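Retro notes
What went well: the complex prediction finally ran end to end.
Inputs used:
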Amino acid sequence: MIGVRTVQRPAAGHAQNATSMARPDESGGPAARRLAFERLTDQRLLRAYRLATFVLRDASDGEDAVHDAAVLAWTRFDELRDRRLFDAWFDRIVVNVCRQRLRRRGVRPLVMDVGTVVPLADGASGRAERDALRRALDRLTPEHRAVVVLRHLEGHSITEIAARTGEREGTVKSRLHYALRELRAAYDAAERGEEGQR
Amino acid sequence: MSDERFDQDLRSVLLEDAPRDVPEGLRRRVAAVPAEHPAGSTMAPPIWRHPVLRRVGTLAAVLVVVAVGVWRFGPALDPGVGDAPSPSPTSGAGASASLGASASLGASPSHRASPSATATGCMAADLAGRILGWQGAAGSRIAGVEISNTSARPCFVRGTPGLGLVDGGGRVLIDSTRGGSGGQPRVSPSDPSFELVPGGRVRTEVRASNYCGPAPSPPIDIALQLPSEGGQVVAVPADGVSSAEAVPPCLGSTGGQIEMNGWRR
């Protein structure tokens, strides 16, 4: 039988675009290489963390994914011939690491299987619609969430998203279309006060 | 409804939910990467940088690993072994370790991963638990739960603990161990072992449903009764995590249920 607790309760900026900093043929010895890597990752860290957190829907998991991506990027840094492309290259590693982590979970996360969500209490005007958007984002697959974040939060073009996800542009367009259709349906239903019946 | 307003609301939701800062811990971990990890491509002999030769090399390495695996473990080798955390090079020696007094770790060939020879089963005193967040769904509530090794020695977790939803007054709202044998702490032969170095952690999701008792007092914790008399770890809400959505609604008199996914990194 589960007993009563016996443990103590614990006491209760956007990064700049790396392309503006890196030179195309930046090279040098190990120290210069390390400096270039640290500078590029530092500039990219917040965006990578946001992307991983949105895809995985778990801040802690997002941290681990970005760390793993940084390890991979460092061990393959010499394969990146043009460091102006670091942003897209690093994002792609982050996306791939997130995919691996999702696969490694072995089972679909429970949050993907919950079906109809409980409507939150209505608040100020527009609150219900935004809450509906949040829940609809949760229901999207990680791949669909990734394209929504890259497009509507980071402002990337279809071509840029394709480069970051390793997908064809047509696939990106299709995913974006489907994701926005789902989000819009949830948003419109919330506006009509119908979400509980969805 | 205008497209413009939808676009604005979508962007504002994304901005509101996006992390505003990089956690200091992550910044430190990433900054330490160059010092802690060899730069792979600079260490490799130049011939292996040729793409074709690199592919051939990779294929050969895979074949060698598969051949060794078949020879070492026989056909029962589970392809998921790559997912098992921290497989130790001394896995053969670790097969004789035990979780505790009553459950053998399993020296069978189908065992997916063995802890290092020095690791033993984690006891409750070695661990701390956190609830990372709650999500509300129709009829149930789902918590992200993490346990970490706070001791100075490596240990491993394996199997499924008994689970309890506990309120701020220490009252057990839902108890898996009262629902028959399925909710008892248990270790199955196919359960992977997760070795936790000091500071290491594993996570899972816990789903609770159908609570019909009196109103509980927050905060809501999750108690995990470790298999093999490992003791009880109580996962408490992490900083900033509210228990407002932690108690599942009453669905009828069939009794409450609480269950979890398998452990993962």
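What we learned: Chain A touches chain B through 70 residues (CB under 8 Å).
What to try next: split runs per interface for comparison.
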